[in-house]
TrEMBL record:
Residue stretches of biased makeup (Low complexity): 203-215, 222-235, 243-271, 297-327
Biased composition, class Polar residues, residue ranges: 184-193
Span of domain N-acetylmuramoyl-L-alanine amidase: 343-507
Organism: Streptomyces chitinivorans
The protein, known as: N-acetylmuramoyl-L-alanine amidase
Keyword Repeat listed: yes
Signal peptide stretch: 1-25
Pfam family of the protein (one): Amidase_2
Length: 525
């Protein structure tokens, strides 16, 4: 206060414009520091207990809450399945409007390794990103109605991803210019290889799509009409609405340089040209006309019956050195840059001998997120996987957002064979890449996202001399609903989650693009 008062007096006595400018700048700097401090808050998780006397029906009555942006449902026994439906509705912290009921995905399983057998592991739904909210209502109903029985210890879990230094001014997006041309702007159209269908209308309020929740009030989506004040500093230009790839309004600011005359994000962060992806839209994910190499006889799943392909006993905590392939490494946002809370991770990472396959996932959340929210979403998933599921770290090895930015997932080194928790029964000798969003219920991946998945998958497999367009034989380490424990499964080296486990993941519209992803990954590796 003394310094600010002295400068103000000086400007009056001297009357010089230079002194006045300094006085204003110094006061603004001090004010900015105070504002930044006030607006920063740590990641937080808190719960509500479900109520009700019926064994097959539980609810959380509509109530006011502390701020949160992600939520899910968990239960005590990780081996128990919630055979029924879990639905939530939330109130926007900005508009005060309530969404309609949204279904939570329930097809997540704990890792088949010792990590999934820890005493703190719980069963849980997939987390759902709902945007900044301050009210919630939830209900869970067992299949067969109130006469059926739900798992015990039901909780509603809400995650506040916090506001960290990286979020102020979207600084993490500027680190390394992740797309090689300032393409942090939202894509303005859907650049997929097949036309997007018209969005469905008149969806019943009790069975909405989780990817595009409608509201009871006349608003375009559950997301606020502009970036929440906790996500960008005051004084930034107001965001102009644009159309994102899902047909939902985007809140991405347009003040960032695009670097592209078309407004579409560049797919290659390295600036090197890459071949066009295949336009084969085969709905089964099987490529037509694509050469199929002979399957490897080397079982790379777990447990393995052949020596030398999988470590014996407990997973190693020492990373084996991969083949050098750093020249093609894509730009990756590190855990430090997206704000991972490393205090959540108690145990060191486990390492495998190599990576022989990549499983592609989607996070099954909303598609109406903005790319400046990507780091917040990933922080939320990390917190949910550790605090709610009871895992040691986030399950996926990598994340990709719809702007084509690649994020480091599970800790241990992006160039190491880190064992993840992403594909039940096939976590051994594989990596998991998850695209933010839902691509089963109408959402379609952008070309930037498809290219990024191809880049990271091709590079990761290339570290171990594996052909991204080829096949490999893995050994199932658990009964997955698709494969029996110990069964040898011949799969594409770049496969969808559903190829290994009974799930809709990564969604039909992303799964159908896997042939093109394999082709591009092979060309760039």
């Amino acid at each position: 206060m003394k310094r600010r008062t002295w400068l103000a007096v000086g400007s009056v006595v001297l009357g010089g414009s230079v002194v006045t400018t300094v006085a204003v700048a110094t006061t603004s700097d001090t004010s900015d520091e105070q504002t930044r401090s006030e607006r920063m808050r740590p990641v937080a998780a808190y719960t509500e207990t479900f109520q009700g006397g019926d064994p097959g029906k539980r609810s959380v009555p509509r109530k006011d809450t502390r701020p949160f942006s992600m939520l899910g449902v968990s239960w005590e026994d990780p081996e128990a399945e919630l055979d029924g439906t879990a639905q939530i509705r939330t109130r926007s912290a900005q508009s005060g409007q309530w969404t309609r009921w949204q279904d939570l995905d329930l097809d997540i399983r704990p890792p088949e390794t010792d990590e999934g057998k820890d005493s703190g592991v719980r069963g849980a739904s997939e987390p759902l990103w709902v945007g900044e909210s301050d009210g919630v209502e939830a209900r869970v109903l067992a299949e067969g109605g109130e006469s059926a029985e739900l798992p015990g210890g039901l909780r509603l879990v809400m995650i506040d991803p916090g506001v960290l230094g990286e979020d102020i001014g979207n600084g993490w997006r500027k680190v390394g210019d992740m797309n090689g041309g300032g393409n942090s702007q939202e894509p303005s159209r859907q650049p997929t290889t097949e036309p997007a269908p018209e969005p469905s209308q008149g969806e019943p309020s009790t069975e909405p799509s989780a990817s595009a929740p409608a509201t009871e009030e006349p608003e375009p989506s559950q997301e606020p009409s502009r970036q929440p004040t906790t996500e960008a500093p005051t004084g930034e230009p107001s965001p102009e609405p644009s159309t994102d790839p899902t047909g939902e309004p985007s809140t991405e600011p347009t003040g960032e340089p695009t670097g592209e005359p078309t407004g579409e994000p560049s797919a290659e962060p390295t600036g090197e040209p890459s071949p066009e992806p295949s336009t084969d839209p085969a709905p089964t994910g099987e490529p037509t006309g694509e050469p199929t190499p002979e399957p490897s006889t080397e079982p790379t799943g777990e447990p393995s019956t052949d020596p030398g392909t999988e470590p014996t006993g407990e997973p190693s905590t020492t990373a084996p050195a991969p083949s050098p392939s750093e020249t093609q490494r894509p730009r990756i946002v590190s855990r430090a840059q997206w704000g991972a809370d490393e205090s959540l991770v108690e145990d060191p990472p486990s390492y495998m001998s190599r990576v022989d396959a990549v499983f592609v996932h989607h996070t099954a959340g909303t598609n109406s997120y903005t790319c400046t929210q990507s780091a917040s979403i990933i922080r939320g998933i990390l917190t949910y996987h550790v605090k709610t599921n009871g895992w040691n770290d986030v399950g996926y090895n990598f994340f990709v957002d719809k702007c084509g930015t690649i994020f480091e997932g599970r800790a241990g080194g992006v160039d190491k064979a880190v064992r993840g928790a992403h594909t039940y029964g096939f976590n051994g000798n594989s990596a998991g890449v998850s695209l933010l969003g839902n691509y089963e219920d109408g959402g379609r991946p952008t070309q930037a996202a498809l290219d990024a998945i191809a880049r990271i998958s091709g590079w990761k497999l290339g570290l171990y001399g594996a052909d991204p367009a080829g096949k490999v034989t893995l050994t199932a380490a658990a009964d997955t609903g698709v494969w029996k424990n110990g069964e040898r499964a011949t799969l594409y080296r770049i496969s969808g989650h559903r190829d290994g486990y009974a799930t809709l993941c990564p969604g039909a519209n992303l799964y159908s693009q896997l042939p093109a992803i394999r082709t591009k990954a092979a060309a760039s590796s």
